[in-house]
Amino acid sequence: MPSTRVPRRRRYLTCEPRYFDVLYAINPWMHPERRIDTGLACEQWEALVRAYRAHGHVVECVEPVPGLPDLVFSANAAFVMSGRVLGSRFHAPQRRPESEVYEMWFKSAGYDVHQPVAVCEGEGDLVPVGGFVLAGYGFRTERAAHEEVQEFFGMPTVGLRLIDPSFYHLDTALFALDDDNIAYYPGAFSPGSRAVLRRLFPEAVLGSREDALAFGLNSVSDGRHVFISPRARGLIAELTRRGYVPVPLDLSELHKSGGGIKCCTQEIRP
Ligand code: ARG
């Protein structure tokens, strides 16, 4: 049966991994002693950008900065809804200088940027879907930031507690499939948060631990096409069954820093 799901054209902000490296360890995926192939990371990122453009999406790029190896993870730098930008305050001191780089990009693109007071890692922990902003906490973004998000956007936040250090950002365990539904890996959440997700999204697509470890829950969907890690085989099969069209893209070199497709993609919502 052909898929009837309808895509919506998106605007994505990314950053070439020209200076990508693993120089410190702030999550369990990062091992600074391992060799990083920056050239390969760039090729994988270019394939992602090509795929977005081939599917009709607009891709913008922040200029990479030497000495900021995690700048490629644009999802963490802000949260944009209704053309309003909430900047980021990073948990790790090594990443704090990234906020200013993205703030400058947004300002030059004509946006006002509101800076949060509490630790807030942008779309890494904030996912708008179903009339809520799903908001992760436990490792990075603080609960106080959820309140700031609710106040700034006038959208109700739903706090979800992350309990597995391998899935330290909400976007490593959950993504929005469209305006109303999500895919997630239940094992990343506390029992209460799991119950909240079941209640809000009874039709959600569930991923396994294998899918999550393959960064399959760190995907980007335009409502029809799901840009996803090719190693998340179970999830790819289930998404296909539900009428989505998976577009496999391998960001294996970026995985060495604990990030995948979604981490490298900031959505600028008009
Ligand atoms: N090395 C980065 C960090 O630990 C990876 C960030 C991945 N981004 C994401 N949205 N999950 O902060």
Automatic annotation (TrEMBL):
Q: What keywords are assigned to this protein?
A: Transferase
Give the source species: Streptomyces hoynatensis
> Record's NCBIfam families?
DiMArgaseDdahMtb
The biological process GO terms on file are: L-arginine deiminase pathway
| The protein, known as | Amidinotransferase
Alphabetized GO MF terms: arginine deiminase activity; transferase activity
